[in-house]
Design a protein that fits this description.
heterodimer, A: mainly beta, Elongation Factor Tu (Ef-tu), domain 3, B: alpha/beta, eight-stranded parallel beta barrel, four-stranded antiparallel β-sheet, 9 helices, 16 strands, 32% helix, 19% strand, binds flavin-adenine dinucleotide, binds flavin mononucleotide, binds FE2/S2 (inorganic) cluster
């Protein structure tokens, strides 16, 4: 699928937790539909205004019937601050859907763990929605530093939800990997901070689970054109996060 | 309606707007976004005889109005390009410019021979990549070394040969004259300016290679000055680039004497930049009663 560019109308842009926002936009008719794990390059400011580069944000939820596309994002710096300032009726430039997305068919008939850390839960809601009808069972395991967000949204699609927080403010005190009983699953999808993905993927791989991770990288084009997002596999081969990924088999990086 | 067609080294481009090397992939990446009828040519990712994995570490770093990159000529190699990327690039519509880098004169020569046997429209010889130790920048600084590499490559191809100059050249006019004398059919300038950034946390340079290349609006006025100087000095056509983001920017370069322009970093801020610039030039021409760019090219010289 070729990425396209369009202007989307902002419907809602509201705070979900401290520094975490949810934005719903209307994807214009005719624009290709995204799948779980894909992302868009977002820009809410002029081409001649800083920051120079647009910002990659994953598809949090896609509602086909209403064409409502939801993003979940953490306000980190200049770009996401400008996204946070958008109001109902404002325009947002989108380029996408970009990236390969999660392999959903891989979950057919399997016992699936969806594992998220912090804002890494963003692409996992749409994943749960797509995997739920094909998998034998889907569990959601989420880790947060302190404040817990968006976990309720997973309830309709997941048999069990387990939560850990670093501070112990909610759920189990500890890391998301402490929640993972690899014997209960055949396949895991993981997204979160690099260190968490590495630890979770290594646990899964050691236990013989099939596993997929969604990587991050600094992006300029999001289209595979600039090679700015390249990172090295375990074997030292360059891969393009925006085009070959962002979803990779866990063994590619953590084998 | 304005006639946007321009002649570049004997080949007709349907518009004067070219996607710049390293920012436009091999063109297809943008084909769902840009109406390629507005794009005169695509300069593909910089090729080297053998493929390259590119640089390690941080590759992109934003500045207030620019971008510093340290890609390091990651590319699949000339042969892979000819077999796998060129057919689709050819089919897109815009003229095909193969951007060729090298480490030694011999690898430049061999790359040029291989490309000469294909249906690429232009060879853009990159003697100016600041991001690989022997990525051509060595040839891009001193006019005498540029003269040597260009004359040797000239003998390997009958394709229109456009030499891409580095703004890091000791003297841009002498460099341009040396390349013209060595047989270049055209010149393109500028490539990125050598730059750097330092990480306050680690107290170390951001890039593994220490230095990297600055592009984008930050370099535009300097690029324009260099294009102006070169257009004054040489007789071959000049392709201007460096920070061009709008039709207005592009027209400045054309008034400075550029035959055509390339758009690089601006494609990241606006993936439709090439089309928007071409449409904007046409609109400006219509509004000012200009029928072809020949009427205004070099008016500022
Ligand atoms: C494919 C992909 C999908 C993403 N999906 C989401 C999402 O759904 N929700 C979400 O909140 N974020 C997501 N991100 C991360 C998001 O793009 C960055 O947080 C954002 O670009 C930061 O921009 P900024 O201008 O606000 O911050 P900046 O001012 O650019 O940076 C603020 C701080 O964050 C660091 N930073 C910036 N970019 C990144 C990055 N890509 N990875 C790690 N650290 C970074 C900087 O070094 C700096 O310390 C995604 C990234 C990728 C590559
Ligand atoms: C990410 C990136 C990669 C680049 N790769 C190449 C390359 O492979 N070969 C080359 O000749 N120039 C390369 N350039 C330089 C551009 O083609 C152009 O000369 C420069 O960026 C200035 O133009 P701009 O300001 O419009 O980007 C690259 C630039 C960027 C930003
Ligand atoms: S962001 Fe440009 S190639 Fe991935």
């Amino acid at each position: 699928m070729r990425a396209q560019s369009c202007e989307a109308l902002v419907l809602v842009n509201e705070e979900e937790a401290t520094g975490i926002r949810q934005m719903r936009v209307n994807l214009p008719a005719g624009q290709p539909e995204p799948k779980a794990g894909m992302f868009y390059m977002l820009r809410a400011w002029g081409a001649d205004e800083p920051p120079l580069l647009s910002r990659p944000i994953s598809v949090h939820r896609w509602d086909k019937e209403t064409r409502v596309l939801t993003f979940l994002y953490q306000v980190k710096g200049k770009g996401t601050e400008k996204l946070a300032a958008l109001c109902h009726g404002d325009r947002l430039s989108l380029t996408g859907p970009a990236g390969n997305g999660f392999p959903v068919e891989a979950a057919r008939g399997k016992r699936v763990a969806i594992i998220g850390g912090g804002i890494g839960v963003a692409p996992l809601l749409q994943l749960a929605r797509e995997v739920h009808p094909v998998a034998a069972r889907v569990d959601f395991l989420a880790g947060f530093r302190d404040e817990v967000y968006r976990v309720d949204a997973f309830e309709p699609y997941c048999a069990n939800i387990y939560v850990a927080t670093d501070t112990g403010s909610f759920g189990k005190k500890g890391f998301v990997t402490d929640l993972l009983d690899t014997e209960k699953y055949d396949l895991a999808y993981i997204c979160g901070p690099e260190i968490m993905m590495k630890n979770a993927a290594r646990l899964c791989l050691a236990a013989g689970l099939e596993c997929y991770v969604s990587k991050e990288g600094v992006m300029a084009c999001g289209l595979g054109a600039c090679l700015g997002c390249t990172c090295r596999t375990e074997k030292g081969e360059p891969v393009c996060v925006c085009k070959d990924g962002p979803v990779f088999e866990g063994s590619v990086f953590y084998g | 309606m304005a006639d946007l067609r321009v002649d570049l080294c004997g080949k007709e481009l349907r518009t004067p707007v070219i996607g710049a090397s390293g920012t436009y992939g091999f063109g297809g990446e943008f084909s769902g976004i840009v109406d390629m009828n507005w794009v005169g040519a695509v300069s593909g990712k910089g090729l080297t005889l053998e493929g390259k994995a590119g640089n390690t570490g941080v590759r992109l770093y934003e500045t207030p109005s620019g971008l510093i990159n340290s890609i390091g000529l990651q590319n699949p190699g000339v042969r892979h390009f000819i077999e796998h990327e060129l057919p689709a690039m050819r089919a897109l519509g815009p003229a095909v410019m193969a951007n060729l880098g090298g480490s030694t004169i011999e690898t430049y020569e061999e790359g040029a021979r291989l490309l000469d046997a294909t249906d690429v429209d232009f060879i853009e010889l990159n003697i100016s990549c600041p991001n690989v130790k022997a990525g051509g920048i060595a040839y891009g600084v001193k006019a005498a070394s540029a003269h040597e590499v260009v004359s040797r490559v000239r003998k390997c191809t009958s394709k229109p040969l456009i030499v891409k100059l580095s703004p890091n050249a000791e003297n841009i006019t002498e460099m341009a004259l040396a390349c013209e004398d060595a047989g270049a059919d055209g010149l393109s300038l500028v490539n990125t300016f050598q730059a750097m950034a330092i990480d306050l946390e680690t107290r170390r340079p951001v890039f593994d290679n220490v230095f990297a290349g600055l592009s984008g609006p930050a370099i535009r006025p300097i690029a324009l000055r260099m294009v102006y100087q070169v257009c004054k000095a040489v007789n071959v056509p000049v392709v201007g680039l460096g920070g061009i983001a709008t039709a207005r920017d592009a027209l400045e370069f054309i008034l400075a004497g550029a035959a055509a322009v390339q758009i690089g970093t601006a494609n990241f801020a606006n993936p439709r930049a090439c089309e928007d610039v071409a449409r904007g030039i046409a609109a400006w021409m219509d509004a000012h009663g200009v029928k072809t760019l020949d009427e205004i090219r070099g008016a500022a010289l």
